[in-house]
Amino acid sequence: MTGETEKMPWNLRQCLLVLLGMLAAGYGTALMVRFFASWLPLAYRYLLVGLAQGAAVLGGLHYFVRKKNGLGLEAVGLKAASLVRAIASGLGGGLVLFLLVVIIGSLLQFFLPDQAPQPFTELVINARQPRDLIIPLFLGAFLAPVTEELYFRGFLFPALKARYGFVRGLLGSGLIFALLHLDLVRFLPLALGGMGLAYLYERTGNILTPIVAHATWNTIMILLLYFALRQV
């Protein structure tokens, strides 16, 4: 099953433009918050940056997919057909990816101990009660999976595959996905996770599968971290 049309209606230059828009929105919002709203709690800062990046991605996809080419959401893999299968595949795939990332992350931790936690992890570490997880779960289990999968798997991966073939498209989308997380130590598990998400999209042709998988992966991570810290 393929996640692209026979002839790609968008190209890599347009993928780059959407990516640059997302980065500009994220860093621009972060700078504005730093200078004009530094009093905001960390969770709300992440929320504003996440919403800005998400809006940039959705706006870019709307322009290049719908406005420029007159295509619907099915062009980026959002389909109602086989909904149950897509969700079930996503749940199973997300669990497998979670286990894969944990295993590789544990090996990296063994060889590279005492690494600083990811910035997003600070939100969970600082959570003192369940309601403090509302924003981390919204970002990690909904906003990031939806916007990142629509861009990296629904938009970028098909363009890379059309240009370079399936294998290099899979590798390229996973590497770019990991690179943009700006975490050198966890680059490998993130890259493999990104490749796994692209494979799920290729196998089902439905973007809901990697969205659910990504959400499952992030949700398990967040909840395990939160409850593990409560036991310390």
Automatic annotation (TrEMBL):
GO molecular function annotations of the record: endopeptidase activity
Residues annotated as transmembrane: 16-37, 43-65, 86-113, 133-152, 164-187, 207-229
One of the GO BP terms on file: CAAX-box protein maturation
Residues in coiled coil: none
Superkingdom per UniProt: Bacteria
Record keywords, A-Z: Hydrolase, Membrane, Protease, Transmembrane, Transmembrane helix
Record InterPro entries: Rce1/LyrA-like_dom
Domain CAAX prenyl protease 2/Lysostaphin resistance protein A-like: 133-220
UniProt-recorded name of the protein: CAAX amino terminal protease self-immunity
